[in-house]
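forwarding from the other thread:

> can someone predict this with L-homoserine?

sure thing
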Amino acid sequence: MVNIAILGFGTVGSGVAEVIEENRQSITHNAAEEINVKYILDIRDFPDSPFADRIIHDFSVIEKDPDVKIVVETIGGAKIAYEYTRRALMAGKSVVTSNKELVATRGHELIEIAKQGNLNYLFEASVGGGIPIIRPITQCLTANELDEIYGILNGTTNYILTRMITDGAPFEEILRDAQRLGYAEADPTADVGGFDAARKICILADLCFGKSVDPEKIRIEGISGVTLEDVEYARRLGCKIKLLGRAYRLPGGRITAYVAPHLIHKQSLLSNVDGVMNGIVVHGNALGECMFYGAGAGKRPTASAVVADVIDAVKHMKARKYLGWDESEPGYLVDAEDVVTRWYIRTGSGLAAIGAAFGDLRLISFPGEYPGAGPGEYAFVTPAMTGRELEKLTAGMEIRSRFRVL
Ligand code: HSE
């Protein structure tokens, strides 16, 4: 029997305990060992929980118990979770986590500590909730040179954008539903502002391209600027608006990474990834394009990935799984404003200003055509150019929305 401890009994932590209990038989078979939840660390008590007898409040009990071989960290954040992860690894325990903030910001360091102790630090649940993506990148696709990865990486914002498209419901109401359903982060600005997706695309870029990408250094745009007019104009172009995290290689071994709303064509792989679902597209030079699709948030889908990592850690007690990346170097990350793309623009400036900046363009919308649109509103798509070039061309214009077109 292998004893484990769960740190944090919130949505994901309680899901992990429940899945281990519920699927005890098949998990024991798959791990070739019984997995026992010996402790659950939380600051709260849960007197009505079937796991009430395992709740403890002092981390050092876990740290000092040699019977605990694996620690599941589902606290979240990069402060106390960092300290406990470090201490657990130093105490000779493998760690499994769903914590994207910690992996994105301190992953390199924690993997190094794990390596020194011949331990595992596994984080399949940190990206895409229940979707297998970390293991495919680090195992199944290793014959490829990977040149691009992009996807819908945040369930909460995808749920909000989908409902804006399907029922035109008010933003606040949809967000409340997402929180009630357990999709949103404790602080939903991490979802809405694109920070959660940024952590995830950085982890994917770390793994795909081999060097650390700091979420603090990439461009991040959330969905708060997306309006119902944008949704309508995108529809006229045969597109949907989706929040994408994207990273790709540029000539000379450099990469770019960013998070932003995009117009994506209805025929593209990701356009039917709706609701809380996530979809991740990887491009490799031997494989071509491959998409991973599934539930990107929520208690049980995330627990599914965490528990699979626990099983993997049990099966690799004395054999490290190779996972990791190098530190970044100057010039490696190129600002997303310096790479070329087409842009969707919604503007309150008139035809003379649009013509002076862009010449002849096909307009998607004219003033007065769409009820609810701001006064004198036009929308169009530009030729391919960098964000900085666009900034210069539109310096004197009133820009209401500006999104990339994939
Ligand atoms: N808040 C996240 C989301 C949870 O909505 O995708 C999963 O990481």
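The chain is about 35% helix and 25% strand. thats all i got for now
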